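Sensor histidine kinase CitA, Enterobacter asburiae. Tokens?
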Amino acid sequence: MSLLHNFRRLNETQTLFSGKAVLALVCFSCLLLVLLGTILFHFIDRQLHHDLGQRARVQASQIALMPGLAAMVAARDIPGIARLIQPLRAESDASYIVIGDTEEQHLYHSESPERINLPMIGGDNAEVLKGKTIISCARAELACRYAAKPPSSTRSIR
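Tokens:
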């Protein structure tokens, strides 16, 4: 009887140990999955933001290099700028296109024409006026707005 009693005790101990091991393994696996998911989310998020910024930079640079645009900006030819940029607006996937001069005044705004001749806001034009292309990101509650500004006058596409 003693041998049978010891066998049952050993079997209960193994079952108890096995249950604890399985529970620990499940908890560890869940923790590992959460950690890997968080790392993957941040990696994809960072890559997506980088790609969107680069895409905005390329589109803004292409607009800045359009023949005649620099001369129109220098002459403050607002109707000419609008005629040149409006066809691009239909093809671009940007939310809006903004063109400004070295005095940081709006010369074109695809979504808010009433802003023409008003000061540009954002405070990020100083680097552009020094000849650097910038990409800025303004985070809002639900989204992030990217603006790329090339250095030929203050032109931006967002």
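The chain has one domain: 2-157.
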